[in-house]
Design brief:
This protein has a domain at 14-52. The longest helix has 12 residues, at 14-25. The radius of gyration is 14 Å and the shape is elongated. It is 44% helix and 0% strand. α2 crosses α3. The protein is mainly alpha-helical. The chain contains three helices and no strands.
Length: 68
């Protein structure tokens, strides 16, 4: 059985949300964000959805296209 995160069941603080925004801007994977803020990956995705924070990587070109 997996361990419960340190912030399991606790409300998100404003510093947690700002850290989530900063890590999302840096293209940090969802699982790593969860480990840093003490939440599950699902909780991170849920909060990002509520706060309209995009977790999609911004540094990848679509369809793996390369300039010739």
């Amino acid at each position: 059985m997996a361990k419960t995160p340190t912030n399991h069941g606790k409300n998100w603080t404003s510093s947690d949300v700002s850290q989530l925004k900063q890590l999302a801007r840096q293209n940090t994977p969802t699982r790593v964000i969860g480990l840093k803020v003490g939440r599950t990956a699902a909780a991170v995705q849920q909060k990002a959805s509520e706060e309209n924070i995009s977790l999609k990587p911004t540094n990848q070109s679509p369809y793996n296209r390369r300039k010739s």
